[in-house]
Amino acid sequence: MSVIRRVWLEWDSDRSELPKSVIVKIPCPTAANNTFEASGATTIGVSDTFLKASHGLESKFYRLMQDEKPKNLLVPTIYASEGFDSQQPVIVMQDYRNCFLVDLVKGLSEKQLFAIAEQLANLQVFSIKNRKWTNVLRKDERSVLQLTL
Hints:
This protein has about 150 residues and is an alpha+beta fold. The protein has helices spanning about 30-40, 50-65, 110-130, 140-149, and strands spanning about 1-10, 20-25, 80, 90-95.
């Protein structure tokens, strides 16, 4: 649903805390429709309303998570997040370039399964202890998501 690119950065400073690269996500209706077609979905296409709501929810989730201390959920750092009301909607985030995809056909190890279960449990604990997330969705975003799910 987005065009996703890794952008390599060059700095005038040698400070090690500055990122060497970031991930840039730009919502794109063409990419979204191509993804749905490739999956064999029977939908006519992704509406602009759904794309706006999806991008908005992702942005809001990351913003909500950035304020959390301690960080029990593994969520990338967000350097910039612009919604559809801006000239260029975009999310610029930490690059987890040292991570890798696991072949799901082969299956996951016990250690990997426990790591996933721990993150799901942390998300559940967050949603129970912190009710801020219930106010994140605007009424129009709720209705769009209910229609598509």
